[in-house]
């Protein structure tokens, strides 16, 4: 599952996890360099109608208080197609490496859905917005935000395997190795084909090594 997804039906590879240093309390955002490489077989980013990147906007900030419209400079039509367009714009920005701007568009789409401005937004779309924003947070090394978004995505659609894998990545970085192990094992059950689960297998091996380090040592005789 690399990059961002357009729908649950699209096949994508898992993003390959990085070698991880011991968890830190507050990792600074990484410089946006574009999407990570992953499985070539399913590499997908859904482009928006326009490939022109909009002028730079203020950096993504904490979500606005519930009911308060976030990012009023971003205009999203209050309809299913409007939310789809917001997602497509965010995906295109993500593919160009404009991660903060992608987060803003994902957030605006989520606000339209979650404040019931749109009555017919499918749960799959709602879940995808959260899991795609989570992947942008992962690229920005905002692990806690990524974990939270993945949990929300799974709350809406428990079968969102991409969200499960991304949460495993975030939990690994946060040092939550038991939770990461549960998530990655769930992914491997959903993706038994070796051609689509290489990254998940590698992540599971890394988690196992960390858990082994934490295991109590046998008492010396």
Comma- or semicolon-separated keywords:
mainly alpha; 221 residues; 48% helix
Number of strands: 0
Oligomer: single chain
Major sheet size, sense and barrel closure? none
Q: Termini separation (Å)?
A: 48 Å
- The proportion of strand residues reads under 5%
Output the structural class: mainly alpha
Radius of gyration: 18 Å
Residue-averaged pLDDT = 78
The number of helical runs is 7
Helix content: 40-55%
Q: Secondary-structure element order, as H and E?
A: HHHHHHH
Shape estimate = elongated
Low-confidence stretches: 7-13, 20-62
Brief overview:
By secondary structure, the chain is mainly alpha-helical. Helix content is 48%, strand content 0%. Mean pLDDT is 78; it is low at 7-13 and 20-62.
Describe it for me?
The protein has seven helices and no strands. The protein has 221 residues and is mainly alpha-helical. It is elongated. The chain starts with 79 loop residues before the first helix and ends in a 7-residue tail after the last helix.
SSE layout:
Layout: H1 80-95, H2 99-114, H3 123-139, H4 143-156, H5 161-173, H6 177-190, H7 198-214
């Amino acid at each position: 599952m690399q990059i961002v997804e357009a729908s649950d039906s699209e096949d994508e590879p898992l993003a390959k996890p990085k070698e991880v240093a011991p968890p830190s309390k507050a990792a600074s955002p990484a410089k946006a360099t574009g999407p990570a490489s992953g499985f070539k077989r399913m590499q997908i980013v859904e482009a928006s109608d326009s490939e022109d990147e909009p002028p730079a906007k203020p950096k993504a900030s904490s979500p606005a208080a519930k009911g308060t419209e976030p990012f009023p400079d971003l205009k999203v039509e209050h309809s299913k197609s409007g939310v789809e367009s917001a997602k497509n714009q965010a995906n295109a920005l993500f593919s160009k490496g404009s991660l903060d701007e992608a987060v803003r568009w994902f957030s605006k789409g989520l606000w339209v859905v979650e404040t019931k401005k749109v009555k017919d937004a499918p749960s799959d779309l709602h879940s995808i917005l959260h899991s795609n924003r989570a992947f942008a947070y992962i690229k920005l090394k905002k692990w806690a935000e990524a974990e939270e978004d993945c949990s929300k995505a799974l709350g809406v659609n428990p079968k969102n395997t991409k969200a499960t894998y991304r949460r495993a990545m975030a939990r690994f970085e946060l040092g939550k190795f038991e939770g990461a192990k549960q998530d990655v094992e769930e992914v491997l059950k959903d993706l038994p084909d070796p051609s689509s689960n290489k990254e998940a297998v590698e992540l599971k091996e890394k988690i196992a090594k960390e858990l082994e380090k934490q295991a109590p040592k046998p008492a010396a005789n």
